[in-house]
Amino acid sequence: MSAIEVKNLSKIFGPRPERAFKLLEEGMSKEDVQKKLGLVIGVYDISFKVESGEVFVIMGLSGSGKSTLERLLNRLHDPTRGSIIINGEDVTKMDQKELIQFRRKAFSGMVFQNFAILPHRTVLGNVEFGLELHGVDKEKRQKRAQEVIEVVGLQGYENSYPSELSGGMQQRVGLARGLALDADILLMDEAFSALDPLIRREMQDELLELQTKMKKTIIFVTHDLDEAFKIGDRIAILKDGQMVQLGTAEEIIVNPKDDYVKAFVEGLDRTGVFTAGTIMQPLKATAHVNDGLNTVLHKIRRAGLSSMFLVDSQRILHGYLKADEVATEVKKDSVDEKKTPNPSLIHTSETVHPDTQLTDVINLYSESTGPIAVVDGNNKLLGVIVRGAIIAALSKGYKPEDNGSADQTTTEEKVE
Fold it and tell me: Looking at 44-53, 165-174, 368-377, 389-398, which range is the least confident one?
């Protein structure tokens, strides 16, 4: 079951909002409807699901409806139409008393752009504030607040006031206050937008690191595409109150749905989005650990390669062989045809996991003198990284499905 399921959700601000639906259904633009009726279209007919433990990013330009959509999820705004199912419960059908109780159970609160921390309270006092509102006794709430303060790296600042903290530290206080409630869902609205670029990147990294431990369901609103693609498992792109595309960063870059999305992703740094798994290419051939030298050389020549990976029957990687070295060894009169490669011929392969970001692959490739193997957690060989695939991934119009079998070597030299 999904943590959040949104069905045909709409929010129209103003009297008699039903007047707008007919015009929108007929294809009239948000702007024209607003001019004609004097109503404000917050969001219109949006549907999506968010899985438990997912970082779901809502992004768009100012006025796209992203913050309105997030506020609908916990009913800070009441929807005009549609349903919001959270952990199996329909939030739209709850009365005010039920809603208050449900918010306490389901949501860790919201982390805002302007930090929203209380200037007259210390760090400890701010972090425990939400627990205090929930009626948690002093000893328990201070113990919980102290635990979360340590998680976000603010230990030693418990008795400091916001005015004594940097912007990044103040935002950590806001994040800690949300985490202290220990509910499943955390809402973040432009949480890092007010921070300097360097601190902002640090907070993004911090959030990702915390998420590996917390496994919370996070709804993160941002107008910054690089931020969205860095932290989001999936991204919903909004325009004029409607969702124009939903997908992973890779899906959106590779297959933008329209010109609006294309314009968004055009200048994006792809090295932070694509991974080794995206650009790896299938192997033309591999050598088996029990293959004789002549067999290995035959495979290398038939495939036209200058190096070849060595695997066992489970495709566990044992290294790679250089074609020229194998050929030299085979020419020796004393070599038995069936003799397997001497350990001195087997070179250690540089390896990456499929999830390794392209930027790290590029750094490794520039320093490597041999082929780069893509392996899983058990060192099972999955594919190979080649120079052409790296260059292609950095170009516009790149599609991973275009990857094909390619040379597994670091040079253009072939074995004759």
Answer: 389-398
Q: Which of 165, 65, 72 is nearest to 117 (CA)?
A: 165
pLDDT attached to residue 104: 82
CATH of domain 276-402: 3.10.580.10
**Which two three-digit tokens encode residue 368?**
């490597």
DSSP lists the bridge partners of residue 110 as 187
Cβ atoms < 10 Å from Cβ of 383: 21
- What is the sign of the dihedral through the CA atoms of 324, 325, 326 and 332? positive
69, 209, 240, 247, 252 from 261: Cα distances, Å: 19, 29, 13, 12, 8
Indicate the pairing of strand 234-239 with strand 242-247. Answer: antiparallel
Q: State the Cα–Cα distance between residues 1 and 118, nearest whole angstrom.
A: 37
Do domains 4-268 and 276-402 share one topology? The answer is no
Return the structure tokens found at 336. Answer: 């038995």
Which value, to the nearest 10 degrees, does the dihedral of the CA atoms of residues 277, 279, 285, 288 take? -30
Cα atoms in the Cβ-side hemisphere of radius 13 Å centred on 368: 23
Structural domain spans, the chain: 4-268, 276-402
Q: Do 104 and 134 contact (CB within 8 A), yes or no? A: yes
- Give me the amino acid identity at 365: Y
- For the chain, count helices (H), then strands (E): 17, 17
Radius of gyration of the chain (CA): 28
Say how far apart CA 350 and CA 337 lie, in whole Å.
29
Q: Per-residue confidence at 115, pLDDT binned at 50, 70, 90?
A: low
Fold of 4-268: Rossmann fold (3.40.50)
pTM, whole model, 2 decimals? Answer: 0.75
Report the distance separating Cα 304 and Cα 293, nearest Å.
16
Please, what sign has the CA dihedral across residues 81, 82, 86, 90? positive
Which pair of structure tokens corresponds to residue 276? 């080794």
Which residue is listed with tokens 């997912």?
A: 54
